[in-house]
Design brief:
The protein has 406 residues and is α+β, with helices and mostly antiparallel strands. The strands form two sheets. A four-stranded mixed β-sheet has the order 1-4-5-8, with helices on one face. It folds into three domains: 18-134, Acyl-CoA dehydrogenase/oxidase, N-terminal domain (Butyryl-Coa Dehydrogenase, subunit A, domain 1, Orthogonal Bundle); 137-238, Butyryl-CoA Dehydrogenase, subunit A, domain 2, CATH 2.40.110; 245-399, Up-down Bundle (Butyryl-CoA Dehydrogenase, subunit A, domain 3). Helix 9 runs antiparallel to helix 11 (370-378). It contains twelve helices and eight strands. Bound molecules: flavin-adenine dinucleotide (FAD).
Length: 406
């Protein structure tokens, strides 16, 4: 028996490391998993149970030096580019989906500030971010729902600034972030599109946030916010007065679509890992077989892992191109089409795979715990903007060669 076991071990196929991680990012991925195990996992359960914001986990991520991953090293960031961002997000999500999602939105906000902001604004906000301050994006409005690029709110000029009035339906890190990039419109703008980004401090008068209670991502604090007669000095306008649609397509959407896709892939892998562990250790006394001893279960494991690896391959193919595009000074909007496909695939995949993980786990998977949490957390992907319905429409319109956005 011992010899047989030995032979079996010797014949085990080794999965190549490049299949799970882009070459050159292995140590970053290992460090992220270590942080996930030591800092995120235990707190994830508490955050979910009590629906409380994962402040400690986010602090631990910032303390590890990952508060501003895509920002160049010379400006205080990690300089690990888009691929590093995806490696970290995918790894963190295997332990805590809520803190990962807050961190993804935070990085998208920081990159927006960096790309569209002035040198003075970078100096004012980037050091805080490196010390654990959190940024957030307040875009979606109840009036226009998933069409978050069409805001109805506005901020007319007043004195040396603007008076912001806006209702926002979902803001990840609402009430918890230190600052918000609020997407609004400027009717005073001479630009063709009127979109304007205003940076608002959480302590300003007129800033209100409301509780968030949801099926999953329960630590997110993704609740509604209102901004009532909030005075924003022009030094806190990020970019131009109107004309910011460009940054939606070249910074916010690319980072958001990429970061959330990595998150859904990580959730799926986390769920499958947990299911695999349980299936290996649960042994039926009557048959003497572990759950993994049943061929049908092994096939389910294989089908789920193939789905995850398809999505992960697509993720890192897209990040490779995004990093190349950035290095050559081209525009990230050239990557939008693959990003739409990636996000749709990852968000559909996580629903299927987390359910397979539950099925493999039997009734134990249905009990309150890690696997049912992954099922709930992963369900948000298809609903988050651009929703999968909207993305499939844009993909379909592109395939028939008509403009994707009317
Ligand atoms: C957990 C979570 C966190 C979020 N965090 C943030 C955040 O940090 N910042 C932020 O700005 N927003 C955030 N959002 C909002 C999100 O990005 C979407 O904008 C929002 O969820 C869309 O939901 P809605 O209820 O407004 O949907 P609706 O727009 O009312 O959509 C309802 C249904 O209609 C479909 N639909 C809508 N428009 C079309 C169309 N044109 N064609 C075909 N089908 C369509 C949708 O796909 C959906 O099935 C978050 C949402 C969630 C759930």
């Amino acid at each position: 028996m011992a010899v047989e076991n030995q032979m079996y071990q010797e014949g085990v196929m080794e999965i190549p490391s490049w299949w799970k991680c882009p070459t050159g990012y292995e140590s970053l991925q290992m460090a992220a998993h270590e942080l996930g195990r030591n800092e995120l996992l235990e707190r994830a359960e508490i955050s979910d149970r009590n629906s409380c914001y994962p402040s400690e986990s986010l602090k631990a991520i910032a303390n590890a030096g990952w508060g501003a991953v895509t920002i160049p090293i010379e400006d205080g960031g990690l300089g690990k580019g888009i691929t590093g961002f995806a490696v970290l997000a995918e790894s963190f999500a295997q332990y805590c989906a809520s803190s990962t999602m807050c961190w993804v939105m935070h990085n998208a906000a920081v990159q927006t500030l960096y790309s569209a902001g002035t040198k003075e604004q970078r100096k004012r906000f980037i050091p805080g971010v490196l010390n654990g301050e959190i940024g957030a994006l307040a875009f979606s409005e109840p009036a226009t729902g998933g069409h978050f690029w069409n805001v109805v709110s506005s901020a007319p000029r007043m004195g040396q600034g603007y008076v912001l009035n806006a209702d926002k339906s979902f803001v990840t890190s609402a009430g918890e972030a230190d600052w918000y990039i609020v997407c609004t419109s400027s009717q005073d703008s001479k630009n063709e599109d009127k979109l304007m980004f205003l940076l608002v401090d959480k302590n300003q008068d007129g800033v209100n946030y409301f509780p968030y209670s949801a099926m999953g991502l329960r630590g997110n604090s993704s609740g509604p916010m209102t901004f009532r007669d909030v005075y924003v000095p022009s030094e806190n306008r990020i970019g131009t007065e109107g004309g910011m649609l460009y940054y939606n397509d070249n910074v916010i959407d690319p980072l958001f679509l990429l970061g959330t896709s990595a998150c859904w892939i990580g959730i799926a892998q986390g769920a499958l890992n947990a299911a695999l562990k349980g299936a290996k250790t649960k042994v039926h006394a009557d048959t003497g077989s572990a759950v993994t001893g049943y061929q049908v279960i092994r096939h389910e494991l294989a089908k789920a892992q193939i789905q995850i690896d398809c999505a992960r391959s697509m993720l890192f193919r897209v990040t490779e191109e995004m990093d190349r595009v950035l290095a050559s000074g081209e525009e990230l909007s050239t990557c939008l089409y693959p990003l739409w496909e990636l996000k749709t695939l990852a968000a559909d995949m996580v629903i299927g795979v987390t359910n397979q993980a539950m099925q493999i786990s039997g009734g134990r998977g249905y009990l309150t715990g890690q696997i049912e949490k992954f099922v709930r957390d992963g369900r948000a992907g298809a609903l988050m903007g651009p929703t999968n319905e909207i993305l499939r429409e844009w993909i379909g319109r592109t395939l028939i060669e008509v403009p994707w956005l009317e």
